[in-house]
Design a protein that fits this description.
This protein is 24% helix and 17% strand. It has an eight-stranded parallel barrel with strand order 1-2-5-10-11-12-13-14, surrounded by four helices.
Length: 622
């Protein structure tokens, strides 16, 4: 299938995204958050599932499904051990799925436009309720979610959920909307391709047709089902979520979704008020004031009301799917409205075009963006032994002005598991990258559930292929289930190597969460050392420091070679640290070694021996 990055770049080229504005420094925003933000992404319906059958295309009765109530006190304590500040509960809004919930007044969904049996969380069918699969009593599913929010807050953790503004499920219809709320498309003029206040784009006079399935694919794996007939009633056809205007989208398209119209005409021109360029330097309050009294498309108002609804349920922030496929002015409108209600709300966006990063931060008023391109992409190559660490320095420099806003991660629901054969084949190969990811900047760190115990993501669950944990089907997650240990959430069933990995993650994340130096300055050491005896492109090093703490961080990415070398600290850094010639004992925060820093003629030297995949965080006592 086409990657999300390829699709988004293609659509941007077709002018479905508003043109970029000039970059400007971001306005400073106050926050009560101290130390590192650490976001734990959990695929909610998989987290608490203890069934291990893992039958491809299995039903929820066969393969099991996790519930909100599985996030009990023990589970939340176990998550918090990783230094977590926020939990992103993925898959909460009610999305299209195959299971029959008609007894609860929920209309059936057509499997012909559902990916998998459990359905994609990014094909939302009702933004005013939660996935009934996640509730012990589907009739009280929203109450059960509110209880989850309350439990999470009691543990000192904040709650985030997904908002997917670019598209909704092909069969969107809300059964839980408050009185007076109109469904997407309810008031559309379907006789035209585009109208400013239409929520969707149309192909007038032509009905929708399901894709031509590949030879190796059958809906529900060929199971006999009354709605599986190769048809879906939609006339006229709507544009598909990835921008396809074909009445019969391709299998590689996001055929289960329809694209939302934000006032971008089919020719790519904007049909809404534009933000003046100088608003890149203004805060959310100025942005909120700008939009007061402005005439904006219907879809803008609908998503404003949706996010306000979730804030009222106690949600503390949102992760936005494919944000760059929606014009930046909409984000200014939406995010300033959210901040007006909750100035501390956390707003994280998926954007894959680095040329637009600054627009979505400064004009769109996002708090954080994925540091996917180029940082994660290059770290992946380093972990795979396909590239040296050298380019990481330049990437860090390229984005230095927006570094605090670029969230680092190694796994999420879209990416391959580190331990999967197509990625690295060994979870421990991710350890040096995890140290770098968590310590190189002031930006947040994100962990994906199961990452800390080396989940491999293998086994084809149904829709799609293994190496990523399924987001489309009911499934058990084996390594994570061993950490759950029958609901004890104590890791008692983990294999020895999984216990060791979890211990390494806990030690690293607990340190980084509260290390004051990691919210301070950065100084590259790699370029000052590359080419020195024993130091090469399988190593990476830098310093992090502020008035309270001084750290030297070095990682060995080689899975086979022990590295013996003397790390050099250049005179400008030593002057910044006010160090005189002498011998300084260092504290190793990830292990028990006690290396020394020798300063001679204002040049620093640390003799190091790093085993394969070993990292050190060396603290200079004040």
């Amino acid at each position: 299938m086409l990657s999300r990055r390829t699709l988004s770049c293609f659509l941007a080229a077709l002018l479905l995204v508003a043109p970029a504005h000039a970059a400007a420094p971001p306005a400073a925003e106050a926050s009560s958050q101290s130390g590192k933000v650490v976001i734990y992404q959990v695929f909610t319906r998989l987290f608490g599932n203890q069934k291990t059958a893992n039958i491809p295309w299995g039903t929820r009765e066969q393969n099991g499904v996790g519930k909100f109530e599985d996030f009990n006190d023990k589970a939340l304590d176990g998550i918090k051990q990783l230094g977590v500040t926020h939990i992103w509960y993925t898959g909460v809004p009610h999305h299209a799925l195959v299971a029959d919930y008609s007894a609860y007044g929920i209309g059936a969904d057509d499997p012909d436009v559902i990916k998998g049996r459990a359905g994609s969380p990014y094909a939302v069918k009702d933004y005013y309720n939660v996935n009934p699969d996640l509730a012990r009593d589907p009739a009280k599913r929203l109450d059960e979610f509110r209880a989850l929010v309350a439990r999470t807050h009691q543990h000192g953790l904040k709650v985030m959920i997904d908002i997917v503004p670019n598209h909704v499920a092909r069969g969107y219809r809300s059964s839980g909307a408050p009185a007076g709320v109109r469904d997407f498309g309810a008031d559309d003029d379907t006789s035209v391709e585009y109208a400013r206040n239409n929520d969707f784009y149309y192909v007038p006079g032509q009905p929708f047709r399901v894709p031509a399935w590949p030879a190796d694919y059958r809906v529900l794996n060929g199971e006999d089902h009354p709605q599986v007939d190769g048809k879906f009633a939609e006339n006229p056809a709507k544009w598909t979520g990835n921008g396809s205007r074909a009445v019969q989208p391709k299998f590689d398209d996001w055929y289960e979704t329809v694209k939302i119209n934000y006032g971008i005409k089919p020719d790519g021109s904007a049909d809404f008020p534009r933000l003046p360029a100088d608003y890149a330097g203004k805060d959310w309050r100025a942005h909120h004031a700008f939009w007061q009294g402005k005439d904006v498309p219907s879809s803008w108002k609908k998503f404003r009301d949706i996010t306000q609804f979730w804030l009222a349920q106690g949600v503390d922030g949102f992760r936005y799917d494919m944000a760059e496929m929606v014009p930046v002015e909409f984000w200014s409108y939406l995010n300033s409205a959210i901040k007006h209600t909750d100035p501390e709300a956390t707003l994280l966006a998926e954007v894959y075009n680095p040329k637009q990063y600054r627009d979505y931060l400064h004009l769109g008023k996002m708090d954080y963006l994925y540091d996917k391109v180029d940082f994660y992409d290059h770290l992946k190559l380093v972990m795979q032994g396909k590239a040296s660490t050298d380019r990481l320095v330049d990437i860090r420099t390229q984005f230095a002005d927006i570094e605090p806003h670029l969230l680092h991660f190694l796994e999420n629901h879209d990416e391959q598991r580190i331990a999967s054969a197509p990625f690295a084949g060994d979870a421990r190969k991710g350890l040096p990258a995890m140290v770098v990811s968590a310590t190189i900047g002031t930006a947040p760190t994100m962990l994906y559930f199961g990452q800390d115990v080396g989940e491999k993501g293998d086994g084809d669950a149904g829709f799609g292929k293994a190496s990523r944990t399924t987001i489309f089907d009911y499934w058990g997650v084996p390594a994570h289930q061993r950490w759950m240990n029958g609901g004890r959430f104590d890791g008692g069933a983990l294999h020895a190597d999984e216990k060791a990995l979890r211990a390494d993650y806990v030690k690293l994340m607990q340190f980084t969460r509260n290390a004051p130096a990691l919210m301070g300055d950065y100084s590259d050491l790699h370029k000052a050392n590359i080419g020195n005896t024993g130091y090469d492109g399988e190593l990476f090093s830098y310093a992090r420091y502020n008035a309270k703490q001084k750290l030297v961080i070095v990682s060995n990415f080689s899975a086979t070679n022990t590295k013996r070398f003397t790390l050099r600290l250049p005179p400008p850094l030593l002057a910044e640290w006010h160090l005189r010639d002498g011998d300084y004992r260092l504290k190793e925060r990830l292990g028990s070694a006690k290396p020394r820093l020798q300063v001679v003629n204002m040049m620093g030297f640390i003799a190091l021996e790093l085993a394969p995949l070993q990292s050190v965080i060396l603290e200079l006592p004040n």
